[in-house]
Amino acid sequence: MKPFTTEAAVAARELTKLYGTGAAAVRALDDVSVSFEAGAFSAIMGPSGSGKSTLMHCLAGLETPTSGHVFVGSLDLAGQPDRVLTAVRRDRIGFVFQAFNLLPSMSAQDNIVLPLRLAGRKADQAWFSTLTEFLGLRERLAHRPAELSGGQQQRVALARALVTRPDVVFADEPTGSLDSTAGTEVLTLLRHCVREFGQTVVMVTHDERAAGHADRVVHMADGKVSE
Ligand SMILES: Nc1ncnc2c1ncn2[C@@H]1O[C@H](COP(=O)(O)OP(=O)(O)OP(=O)(O)O)[C@@H](O)[C@H]1O
Asked: For 92, which of 8, 18, 153, 167 could close a Cys bridge (C-beta 3.0–4.6 Å)?
């Protein structure tokens, strides 16, 4: 392996992922090498089945590639024990999902600080205030998810992803459950997170309009990447 130096927040090197074996094997990722620059908003686009989710899951340490390497900063995830992968996901990565994935019985505030509680860490009050103000959630913190609009729920999910100050936020079709107004608002906020806080964001989307908000679009087809 060559020495690896880059400004990348997260990168894949010669990443291959096979599902199944023999003649029935699916090559979901086929020798993918791609870097995602720190402090940039990147989108991964491509048709259904092209490997977008598989790439994101491997980059986030949620799935183990068949071969190749994933670097989060300078840390090579290949061969790391579960304990290290869990710590990387918890401390260095934030997630935003299409279906928000908030806990229904908890207030917005408790949902936002949950990743910190799970890590046994206390919220940085100044950062919590900045974030909830920035995301327009100050008046909504006592509400439960069912008492919030879709756009508000996704903003709570975004606050939850950012509260740990992760190296990378992965957003998986973050506008897929929203109408176009709320979707545009969430994309604009993601953009502002990159600009204001230097946050690195990698978003998977089908939607060309959503990808239009990114600094850079990586296209996938048949498990391969093209710019
Ligand atoms: N757990 C699995 N077992 C077997 N095959 C899988 C599995 N997960 C994904 N695949 C296959 O790998 C390929 C890539 O799937 P992937 O979900 O990464 O694509 P995608 O671009 O994210 O698609 P979509 O936009 O529909 O979510 C597809 O052919 C898919 O059927």
From this structure: 167
